[in-house]
Model the fold of this input.
Amino acid sequence: MLEATPLTEGWILRHDSEALPAVVPGCVHTDLLAAGVIPDPFLGRNEAEVAWVGRREWTYERELRAAPPGHEQTDLVFDGLDTAAEIRLDGRLLGRVRNMHRSYRFHVTGLSGRLSVHFGSAYAEAEAARGKLGERPAAYAEPYQYLRKMACSFGWDWGPTLVTAGIWRPVRLEQWSTARIARVRPLVTVEDGQGVVELHVDVERSRVEAELAVAARVGGVRARAEIDGTAGVVRLQVPDPELWWPRGYGEQPLYEVELTLLHGDAPLDTWRRRVGFRTVELDTSADAHGTGFALVVNGERLFARGVNWIPDDVFPSRITRERYRERLGQAAGAGVDLVRIWGGGIYESEDFYDACDELGLLVWQDFPFACAAYPEEQPLRGEVEAEARENVVRLMPHPSLVLWNGNNENLWGFRDWGWEPVLAGGSWGEGYYLGVLPRVVAELDPTRPYTAGSPWSGSWRHHPNDPAHGTHHSWEVWNREDYADYRLHVPRFVAEFGWQAPPAYATLRRALPGEELAADSPGMLHHQKADDGNGKLERGLARHFAVPADDFDRWHYLMQVNQARAVAAGIEHWRSHWPVCAGTVVWQLNDCWPVTSWAAVDGDGREKPLYHELRRLYADRLLTFQARARGLVLAAVNQAAERWTGTLTLRRMSVEGELVGEASVRLAAERRSVAEVRVPAELEPAGPKEFLVADAWGSPRSSGAESGGGLRALHFPAPDRDIPYPRPEFDVESAPGRITVTAHTLVRDLLLQADRLDPAARADRGLVTLLPGEQVTIGVSGWETPDAAAARAALYCVEPTR
Done:
């Protein structure tokens, strides 16, 4: 039977004349940090102090003993090497590698001695390729498109430039005899009510003449097949399987598949995975509105409630199984049902996809290409196909994986970013996205759809980012316009959009020790990587609020409010236009370090107000006021499986708390549909001194409800800077685990910044608006010394413009 021995101990990292202890899996930066050679690059402006690390060559070493007798062959297996490396054993070259996204296997039978893995500088490797292949345009000046490495190692508009090297995934010795399982390609489908698992098996032999077979089992069903040469297929059919569903649509039953390679009755090797039975389609049919883009799982059309995912750490080897579970659990807790793994990162570890399988989170997987023209010549072309083949097969068992996507923004970049004349007919990646990758997916994984890019209109007949066709990235709003302009278009599927805000206060205090915080303080500016990021933040805020000049705490709070308001404007509008619009994927869920960014969860794992707002926006049921040609309507978005009926109360109120008008109507929204109720003309606000409140009773309570047992929507007809708010008055009571606020006036967007009470403290809700006389109880964990005065100091809300 194949035996595997992890090689995690005994490694050193050569640094100048020193031998530093090394952690494997790991990377050079984390080893240097542990040894005290470099400062923490996440703190202050230390990033610049460690830039030299990415320009150096590095060597990992350890002793490798000869494997004990009893097996015919011994392999040295690396699951991931970052990136350009030579592997030697006692000076003997085992191989050269140049792809972070692949695994590598070397025969070392009978060999022992000093094992070394020598990493060249990723910069040197990329610049050599650029010299050979020629210049290619990109969104950033760094040469990330010239080698197969996590692009955002070279920095992004939310990430630091920390160009890594190291043995970033596990390494082991494998000993085996006669034959081993080289690859299993599982095709999992549902046919005529039966779950079908078809296992395509490739084997490697040490004895050509040996007769081999495979035995497999799943869900109480067993089957056996012979191996013909080095390949075989075994098919199993499970009657009446329980279907795997996205969260919110059903359960996530998983079935263990076990396949054993046999020589006679003797087991040689075993492969085990969990699978789920479900069907997935991508509906891109044309209609009166253009070209659709809708995921269909088990025959059910979905409005995808998505978030974009970036690597959760600049140093991916630090991301543990528990950290994946925490972050993806946060996504599920916010009502998310789809996570898009963005193309400037990596193919994530099995731990990521396992968590998504269990949580019911659909996975949209980009191939790692982002924001650049990629050469298609060798050696890159061969590397691209090899990595695609390996990772498509590796990830196939996971039912959560529902879509392969060729790239991020490269088709759009070719058309709109001035690439075409610069390239002058040279290769730029189109052959990957429209040739190599769809061919690989069609050959290896025909059970899943493929799309050429994001954004992509489906063909060159339409602009790549045409909102009427396929996927759309909405960035004009953040870059140049007011977030109210989200309401000017109804894209078929919004795969990227977002708005920035700084991280939580405690995150800033940890990341910028000793600095007096200000919007333009040196550390704040260093931890703002977007081009003119602070300028866009302040121009976006000025359209709605007076920008605080010298009050950082107020600036920080209002930027958090504006981020939540901006994202809400988009999602509420687009959800109200289901099924024309079939999904929103917010940029972004997470951060890889402490930074001002578009994330809902900051680099220390703290939830911004946007996170809590997503819980309301992505709930099965949502109320939202929307402008239509016929006037103001209240849209009742019902993504639940049951019909939604109840009483709808509309109130026209003054900001001083006076009830100006009221009406009650019946609400009826069919399952997976949107119902609209026309707001009576006499209830529409007369100006900035008035606003509308809608409460839906008889419906399940949602995280968006401020009081009572229903859902609420608010409509203020003017920007906050033009609304004559009263000075907010409220009482605060504190007790273990909770803070209660009772409003005496209108209190707009009340926020408890729990991390100001204690860095470990968390609140269970974000922004909440209270009418006079209403009360809210905020759950607080991690705060051991409740105090009403301290609680009041950590509470912020919108105040009248001075």
Remarks:
- Residues 699-708 have pLDDT under 50 and may be disordered.
- The two ends are 77 Å apart (CA to CA).
